[in-house]
Design goal:
alpha/beta; Rossmann fold; UDP-galactose 4-epimerase, domain 1; 7-stranded parallel β-sheet; 12 strands; NAD(P)-bd_dom
């Protein structure tokens, strides 16, 4: 089996960012493949494990049910040496990051420390533990690397031109992974993921804001590709994208359709509004405070390499995804109203 080692023991995976959207889905995927899954979480006075709480039994001690959690932070090198030495994973998936583009303009130094140097800390800890020939490493790269892209669609060899501190930090992370792969012959690779959504998307992201808002009005999968990349004979970087593009306007319209509302548009620029065509009520307004100092150009990923070499392809259509997110938020709102 692909998920077993030569000693017939389960493969061991270590996931940073396991409490996030991608990390939670990846944990499920690996558990279903028979892995022993370990995750790294930050020490916090608030509960941050909501997306994965059902995967362990005791929320106070994180006693293993299907996963084992460890305290750590991308700003601390020592914790990774300790955790990697103890867990001795076969695969490490580095999904943790300060991933909000707008926030990166306000917290640029912190973003660099976590997203850029944090990646270096993890990959260098592998070498410090003398596991360079044992551990396979996946780095979650991003379409923000392309930024002011000079070709459409973007593929693995498209030049990078990031337009935010987040994109710049991720570019360092991308190249340090390539450098360690070439300098030390380590199995490490980058997955350049374009925008991907789910019902577990953070509430500060625009898509989740839309679906939550639609749910309120109504009331009153990429992870497989990550795993496939670490099963190849040699490490390579891949673009992970549907190859299709959708605007925020498209997302808004599709989300409202789920609850039987057709949105029409009036005005232009910052004064443009989305109107319920049946009632005439304004449902959507633009808030300029969320504009970024610099924006990316037209991003559209070319997934040819991933399709041909990995046999990977997207499983969910745009309309199916929007429907899943809206329905999930409607159910969440109903539960909140019952409390």
């Amino acid at each position: 089996m692909a998920s077993q080692t030569s000693e017939s023991r389960p493969k061991i995976a270590l996931i940073t960012g396991i409490t996030g959207q991608d990390g939670s889905y990846l944990a499920e995927l690996l558990i279903n493949k028979g892995y022993e899954v370990h995750g790294i979480i930050r020490q916090s006075s608030s509960i941050t494990t909501g997306r994965i709480s059902y995967l362990y039994e005791d929320p106070k001690t994180h006693t293993a049910k299907a996963i084992k959690l460890h305290y750590g932070d991308l700003t601390n090198s020592n914790c990774f040496v300790k955790i990697i030495s103890s867990v001795q994973p076969d695969e490490i998936y580095n999904l943790a990051a300060q991933s909000h583009v707008q926030v990166s303009f306000d917290l640029s130094e912190y973003t660099a420390d976590v997203d850029a140097i944090g990646t270096l800390r993890v990959i260098d800890a592998i070498r410090t533990c003398n596991f360079s020939n044992k551990i396979r490493f996946y780095q979650a790269a991003t379409s923000e690397l392309y930024g002011k892209a000079n070709e459409i669609p973007q593929k693995e060899i498209t030049p990078f031109y990031p337009r935010s501190p987040y994109g710049v930090a991720k570019m360092y992370a991308f190249w340090i992974v390539v450098n360690y792969r070439e300098a030390y012959n380590m199995y490490c690779c980058n997955g350049i993921a374009f925008n991907h959504e789910s019902p577990r998307r953070g509430e500060t992201f625009v898509t989740r804001k839309i679906t939550r808002a639609v749910a309120k009005i109504y009331l009153g999968l990429q992870e497989e590709a990550m795993w496939m990349m670490l099963q190849c004979d040699k490490p390579e970087d891949f673009v992970l994208a549907t190859g299709k593009t959708h605007t925020v306007r498209n997302f808004v319209e599709a989300a409202f359709v789920i609850v039987g509302i057709k949105i029409g548009w009036k005005g232009s620029g910052v004064d443009e509004v989305g109107v319920d065509e049946e009632s005439g009520v304004v449902r959507v307004r633009i808030n300029p405070k969320f504009y970024r100092p610099a924006e990316v150009n037209f991003l559209q990923g070319d997934n040819t390499k991933a399709r041909e070499k990995l046999g990977w392809k997207p499983k969910v259509t745009f309309q199916e995804l929007v429907a899943e997110m809206v329905i999930s938020d409607i159910e969440l709102m109903k539960k909140n109203l019952e409390v």
